[in-house]
């Protein structure tokens, strides 16, 4: 939309930060600057990131495109090819004459050169360095709220005893301390926002600048970041416009109940700047928009999180969250080497191993239901799964259909194995490359773990398309012992299929459910260095699923992967090796900081953010 008078734009992004602010109703929060911003702006009660971790969500916030539209951008962390014709929002605004600065984190999960798309991209980038008279877009990423901030302890500003713990967590001192400590980091972030607002005022720019505040995703306490519940996806979103542009948004102090995704911020920025929103962007502008709480939806996802593959898709309306787990045979609480540096995860797992948890708290350490549905108004902690309840059948069906339609619309790359030649925005859309409809017809059956679907899975093991065959094999694996008549088919596929990503779930099913030790050996061989990183990681994941006893005959192979496997494979192998040797405890440090540094190409290290300079971080 052409605008005769265009605003400056200040966008602040607090890293890994849920909306534990006073303006969002948290009585323990110290957030006067953001509370003041909300009072003179619009607060979105139900804003959600595209993914519950930074790199995929930041891809969406840069491009306006879902990360799963352009694999491997949906993985944490990856380097997707970003088509040159697909303009990012800073490129679009620069063409409109804006001076665009980014301070300083990028972590875009793709091969975009940050220094090519921004006028300035550095820890010193600031609107004050713009050419005289130029309109500006200034982005400031405030990384003090990053997950790594809870790995240590500062003086509390909140009494740990006053914290409300969600029902899925046990009440331990370390978990309470993680929550209480994080309030200090939120207060420090709010103060940093206050400094920027004061600078705007000192420069006489408050009446000329629209201010936006959000986070890249939720977090950072246990079962938040990386998981597709509200704690992992719910973010603050506040937009404050001065009087000249106030007509573009609801009245100051308005709270919007309709769900919105942060994927809508890039088109909003372009719209505010007077530009035409590119057709590839999958969201619509939040400016001059109508918000219908009965119609709006926000979508989210996860795939590989560091070393752990787990494909999950979710959709949220104003009240309900629907989740589809495509790998229900995996537990929620698969060890994450980086996350386990937090005392909260260590305490939770230790309580699980001691048998001290109730059923709600212990569910995290077990296999997942294939489908989850939560009434977030009645159940904000999302612990009472309503999927399959006849009273909610219409809600479940509506959201299930909406999720499948969305996955088709964005051409979800998530079913493709990482490194596939068909992965990517353009490659996956080539005719015949990726029959997503057919893949979904098979993969959507996995969640139900119904033995009646076994004939469908066995027939699909012979499909011409490797991705269909792979998810058919996962379907058989998820059925477990109920798939006893499949053994002959599994052995034929595990030894004869040309694609190792198809052979791996077949071999895991044989070894895990039918005591086939030869199949376990096949998995061990696929972890060897001559195979691709994706194959090695998938094979080691399958070997680890056999447990320490099942993997013990291959200890030397696991040890070699631990020593030579790089960051993700190495972390997973070290965790398994500690288990094989009987030396693992939740406090065992599995994360290899040096391996992380070695794994990141030099040209991408500045994308990960300030944590690289000072210790574990950047995730």
Keywords for this structure?
alpha/beta, 619 residues, eight-stranded mixed beta sheet, 23 helices, 15 strands, globular, single chain
Spell out the blueprint of helices and strands.
Blueprint: E1 8-14, H1 32-39, E2 42-44, E3 47-48, H2 54-63, H3 89-95, E4 99-103, H4 114-117, E5 120-121, E6 136-142, H5 173-202, E7 209-215, H6 230-233, E8 234-235, E9 237-240, E10 255-256, E11 260-261, H7 265-272, E12 298-302, E13 312-316, E14 320-325, H8 343-353, H9 359-362, E15 371-375, H10 393-409, H11 436-443, H12 454-460, H13 466-479, H14 487-496, H15 500-513, H16 517-525, H17 533-544, H18 547-551, H19 555-564, H20 566-581, H21 593-599, H22 602-608, H23 611-614
Parallel strand pairs: 1-6, 1-7, 2-10, 3-11, 4-5, 4-6
Antiparallel strand pairs: 2-9, 3-8, 7-9, 12-13, 13-14, 14-15
Helix pairs in contact: 5-8, 11-13, 12-13, 13-15, 14-15, 15-16, 15-17, 16-17, 17-20, 19-20, 20-21
